[in-house]
Amino acid sequence: MSSLRSFDAFRQFFGGEVDHQFHVDNVVDSTLLINLDLMINMPCKFIHTNVQDNTDDRFLASELLKYEGFRFFIPPSYKLNDHNSIETPDLDEIMAEGIVAQFQDRGDSKDSIAPACHIYGTIPVNKVSGDLHFTAKGYGYRDFDRTRLGVEQLNFTHIINEFSFGEFYPYIHNPLDATAQVTEENLQSYEYYLNVVPTLYKKLGVEIKTNQYSVSLQKKLYSWENRGVPGIFLKYDFDPINLVVEDKRISFFNFIIRLATIYGGIIVTARWGYKLLDKTLILLFGKKFASRGEEKLAGLLDDNEDERK
After folding, report:
1. Where's the Endoplasmic reticulum vesicle transporter N-terminal domain (predicted)?
2. Which of 217, 230, 261, 264 is the residue whose CA sits 20 to 30 A from 43?
């Protein structure tokens, strides 16, 4: 038992222990960044990108994002028609991979005639419930040029390379990263529901603030009789709590106190054990048996003194 307590004291001093706590989010942030990198199997010039939130604030996100035409393909390592499992990363993993980087910013070729579109960039949004969506021209919004695509031109098959909130950490994996959704239907709608939880990691004075999220997906297939807006909808909401994952270690002073208490207890227990054993021997075999070996052994001088007497 004492060995286990000693081991636990050494572990808490040298290795520490990971503590998870939830707190009310009292940090007031009016805006938050969304980092996105996705590809849609339609030409860029056919796609509308908009953000609308609960404050009725709406803006054309396409003015802040980059568009590149390319030929659509799905990398073999991507999850098809699924998303990644939702797990809170380990503290050591975050400390090793929590390197802030600038999100990619390349050229813009929105008017490309390529059959698919690569959309990427960072957009600021109000920190309230909102909806980032990708729709086709003539569906959901009225265009100034009154362009409306034919149904046969719609295809919202897509892959998501990156989707995260807050500062961009390229080595931290998110639930929607490296995922793909494939459809052969033209009037297909994908509605992602994201629940964002601010998460703070703390270890040895280093703090890394991330925004983890859970995700669920609802697919809807529309028809001319059951009309709706086909597209990709990312509906996000922010929890009023935050998660703090902290590496806690006892101080050196407390470490010494714990060791002194443990070893002091061992000494006291040993003394009481010795006394108990001594009394038990006296009760069983008598005082003479318990004190055997304590008599002084006679030497040569003692023998001579006895002869003189």
Report:
1. 10-58
2. 217
Q: Mind listing the pLDDT tens digit for each residue in 178-215?
A: 999 999 999 999 999 999 998 888 877 777 888 889 99
- What is the CB neighbour count within 10 angstroms for residue 130? 22
In terms of Cα–Cα distance, which of 133, 132, 131, 190 is closest to 156?
190
Q: Say what the alpha-carbon torsion angle 240, 241, 242, 243 is, to the nearest 10 degrees.
A: -150
Q: Does residue 160 sit in helix, strand or coil?
A: strand
* Polymer length in residues for the chain: 309
* 304 part of a folded domain: no
Residue 22 lies in a domain: no
- Alpha-carbon gap, residue 93 to 244, rounded angstroms: 15
pLDDT digits (tens, 9 = 90+) for 57-114: 777 788 889 999 989 999 988 988 877 666 666 666 665 555 555 566 655 666 567 8
Element (H, E) at 234: strand 231-238
